[in-house]
Amino acid sequence: MEAVALVLGALLTVLCVVFVARPLLRPARVAEARDEPGPAEQLRVRALERRDRALAALKELEFDHRTGKVSDEDYRALVGPLRQEAAAALRELEHEDRVEREVKADVHG
Q1: Cβ of 47: how many Cβ atoms within 10 Å?
Q2: How far from 79 is each of 53, 65, 69, CA to CA, in Å?
Q3: CB-based contacts of 55: which residues, under 8 Å, 6+ apart?
Q4: Cα(94)–Cα(87) distance, rounded to whole angstroms?
Q5: Mean pLDDT, consecutive 10-residue segments, the chain of 109 residues?
Q6: Rounded Cα–Cα distance for residues 86 and 54 (Å)
Q7: pLDDT at position 62
Q8: Burial of 79 (0-12, 13-18, 19+ CB in 10 A)
């Protein structure tokens, strides 16, 4: 009789563990699917990366120019395109923010 009680106890324990663990395992897969950025978010991330790269390059160029690693002539030749790249990325982000605000206004309006 004790053997039957031990087997039933072990079976009940296993069922409890499976029951408790099942919800913990499932949301991880659902969360992964929800965490994938949509096309709009991917565009925004790319624009943020473009902006960050351009601003970092500008910062590095400024530093190199101040420390004498880059001549005045080279600095003038390099700074313009980097500023244009940073400005283009900022305009893209501004446009995306404006579109997002308009979409939200349409949905809530």
Answers
A1: 19
A2: 14, 10, 14
A3: 86
A4: 10
A5: 72 73 64 68 88 94 96 95 93 86 75
A6: 5
A7: 96
A8: middle
- Alpha carbon distance 89, 28 (integer Å): 34
- What type of residue sits at position 91? R
Residue 39: its pLDDT value, please? 80
In three state form, how does the secondary structure of the chain look? Answer: CHHHHHHHHHHHHHHHHHHHHHHHHHHHHHHHHHHCCCHHHHHHHHHHHHHHHHHHHHHHHHHHHHCCCCCHHHHHHHHHHHHHHHHHHHHHHHHHHHHHHHHHHHHHC
The pLDDT value given to residue 71: 96
